[in-house]
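Lecture 7 notes: from sequence to structure.

We start with a single chain of 177 residues. Read the sequence below before looking at the structure.
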Amino acid sequence: MKRYYLLIASVLVLGASCSGPGKNGQTEMTVQDSIVSMENSLFNDSGTQIKRADAVKLIDLYKKYAKENPQDSLAPVYLFRAADISMNIQRPVRTIALFNKIMTEYPDYEKVSSIMFLKAFVYEDQLHDLDKAKRYYEEFLEKYPESDFADDAEVSLKNLGKTPEELIKEFEENNEQ
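Now the structure, written as tokens:
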């Protein structure tokens, strides 16, 4: 029985020390807690479309965490997630800025090659800046010729600027031979 009271007392002390009251007696959430909560609400609602405003809030939380914790190993991960969401909600200028930030501040981040490819893709697909897309695809192939995306970059370069109709015509001509 004594162990039972000790266990309860320990749990209460541990609980009180982990989440003390913040301003106005409310429990404060860390930026990371907010991120986890927002990710859970955005990505675990199957079948529901993500609200743009919520996606923007999550992007802001990711950026805030990286700004406040630049040396943390999660900083480039969160910036990459922010860029991914930004790209998917069609915010290409902000996406490129996030990609550039990661490549500049975290050049050893494991996904830098993917980021370089995606940067070229955003220039091609969302900004329709074919000159920059070509430049970044070529730079990507120069730096990462063995990447899983190398074939995709080569195909993108080959088809850069072609209309869907032109691509279909080429496909049909190649299948006739």
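The chain has two domains: 29-106, 111-161. Keep this in mind for problem set 3.
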